[in-house]
Amino acid sequence: METAEQHWDLLNENILEPLGYPEQRRNLFPRDDLLQLAGDDCKDLISASRKICHNLNIKRSRTCDVRKLIGKMDVLPELVIDLQASSARGAAAMALTMCLAHTPGLDLDEVTTGVPPDADVGELLDAVSGYDTRIARRIRHEEFYDKVVLASDDALEAELLKDLDASDVVVLFVVIDVVDDGIRGWGHRKDVAAISARASASSASSALASVISTMAAARR
Question: Which pairs count as long-range contacts for 10-17, CB under 8 Å and 24+ apart, including other chains?
Answer without folding.
Answer: 11/35
